[in-house]
Amino acid sequence: MRVLPDPELTPEELEALKWIQDNDQRKNVRKRAQVILLAYKHYQGQQIAEILDMHPNTITGIMKRWTLSRLESITKKHCKGAIPKLTEAHLEAIYEWIFQDPSTYGYKQTTWTCKMLANCLKKHYGFKVTQERIRQILHACGMSYKKPVLQPPTASSSQKKRPKLNF
To answer: Which listed site, 14, 48, 132, 153, has its alpha carbon 20 to 30 Å from 163?
Structure first.
């Protein structure tokens, strides 16, 4: 691993990093502060990685961000994950579909399932969404997904009334 640059901390930055290391509630923020403080004490990247149980590339990334934006890089929340494909319009469409009969969209069932909603989204918007993601969306809307209970057809009222037989 290459040699880390000396962070050259001002007295205010040094004090702020020590306070963050000792008092901040967020573990990842405390670790970033520790990386900078150890680099300030002339530890090498591999040594810091071993001490803090981090990957050396993570140490390098923290140091690069430090040189660009100083203290802000320590406390700033970094983005993770892919950009969601579903837009507000897609969510509204799913919400509307839920309150309509599935037969209006070519399905033979009378109750929506997560699989049917995912297929409908694929048919109308052209991208795949998992059944689990549909379930999460329904949950976020305050709805719970329940499996339909199959029941035998009930008899009509004329079939229920049987004439009494006298013996």
So the answer is: 153
